[in-house]
Design a protein that fits this description.
This protein is an all-alpha fold. About 80% of the residues lie in helices and about 0% in strands.
Length: about 400
């Protein structure tokens, strides 16, 4: 199992890296294709839209044919899509290649979570998901850093050559470790029911509906608020965007630190305590961001915010893998889709608030909402949530 989990973690690293690697490329694309920043930004939005839309397709496929198998096929698709992007002769074809890459990458992280749910006992699952979290956070940091570095030194096309080579290498590793990967995971396949039947089955479960609602709110309030930290630092304190982006990168550092300490924290606080403490610390982090008189305070706030966000989110992830074990791929894909939808709508709503007021209002809303959300979730873990999960707690 360790070999399969290691290869899936590599795939998750590459998937997250491919999602964030285009963030620093926009000026180079704008120059080479003689276009506007908004048009160049389609390479980011096309990836994101395809990533969100394809979530619902992969879950039922994985429940039927095996999660590891679907991820391994998707990784090959990512290699092909990034190879096409490297040689795209026009911006339109580059955008199309990025959309294909986003659609393929959409399978990787949610289905890896679902595979962990099949293969790892519940008592050990949060720790395993935290290790996966470490891989995805490192991928996010590597993408944001290497994209600019490669574009400055070798040109923007080299970014996609590196990604294609990385995904090809991951595909080979997964091929080597694929024997029996899905067969070894209990409940890896569900041949009963069609596409809509699986989705209805998840939505008919009360605890699943609660987890999905929590994921939507978390995405809409928490993740969207962090997106406005760089622009807030730039507008309010005159900080250069390069440095402002660097401050937000501390969010990823905080998330990675949590992934290394997850086992000890879980043993000390338990699931409910982990979620509740994460919510309280998020309230502190956003309160600091809202009231700070000096931009330097944003550094510890983002570091704390990343650590706290993943205390809460990792606990939510763990319960997402246990919502409906007989259709785990579908359930986790719905979780990812709901989280993604919440982020998208949250950014849109927060943008309107920023345009009419300021990002400070967005931070205040997050500081008030997230502790309440976490407290409610923590209470449900030990009451109605445990009753709804009771029939599935032992596999």
């Amino acid at each position: 199992m360790r070999g399969e989990l290691a290869s899936l973690s590599l795939a998750a690293f590459a998937s997250m890296m491919s999602m964030r690697i285009c963030d620093p490329l926009l000026p180079a694309l704008e120059r080479d294709f003689a276009t506007t920043t908004g048009a160049a930004a389609q390479v980011i939005s096309a990836f994101a839209i395809a990533y969100g839309l394809l979530q619902l397709a992969y879950g039922p496929l994985a429940d039927r044919y095996g999660k590891f198998r679907i991820v391994s096929i998707a990784v090959v698709g990512c290699a092909v899509a990034n190879g096409a992007a490297a040689f795209a002769p026009s911006l339109d074809l580059l955008v199309a290649a990025r959309a294909a890459g986003g659609g393929a990458a959409a399978a990787v992280i949610p289905l890896t979570m679902a595979w962990i749910g099949d293969a790892v006992p519940y008592a050990e699952r949060q720790e395993a998901l935290a290790r996966l979290l470490g891989a995805t956070v490192l991928g996010m940091i590597a993408g944001q850093w290497s994209g600019g570095l490669l574009a400055d030194t070798l040109g923007w096309r080299s970014v996609f050559v590196v990604l294609a080579a990385l995904f090809a290498a991951v595909a080979i590793v997964m091929r080597v470790s694929s024997r029996g990967a899905d067969a070894a995971a209990t409940g890896a396949r569900d041949d009963n029911g069609g596409y809509y039947a699986r989705i209805r089955g998840v939505l008919a479960t009360p605890w699943a509906r609660e987890i999905l609602a929590l994921a939507f709110i978390e995405g809409a309030v928490g993740y969207s608020a962090f997106a406005f930290v760089p622009s807030h630092l730039h507008v309010r304190f005159g900080l250069a965007l390069t440095w402002a982006g660097g401050v937000l990168a501390l969010y990823g550092v905080g998330g990675f630190a949590y992934s290394r300490l997850a086992r000890a924290l879980l043993r000390r606080l338990g699931e409910a305590g982990l979620a509740r403490t994460g919510g309280l610390l998020l309230g502190v982090a956003f309160a600091v961001l809202a009231a700070m008189p000096d931009w330097r305070l944003a550094m510890p706030a983002c570091l704390l915010g990343g650590f706290a966000m993943y205390m809460l989110h990792n606990t939510l992830q763990t319960h997402a893998t246990q919502m409906v074990p007989t259709a785990r791929g579908t359930a986790v894909s719905l979780f990812a889709c709901t989280l993604f939808l919440g982020q998208s709508l949250g950014v849109a709503g927060a943008s309107a608030i920023v345009d009419h007021a300021s990002a400070t209002v967005v931070f205040v809303i997050a500081a008030l909402t997230l502790p309440l959300l976490a407290a409610w979730f923590a209470r449900r873990i030990g009451t109605a949530g445990s009753r709804d999960r009771g029939t599935h707690a032992v596999e």
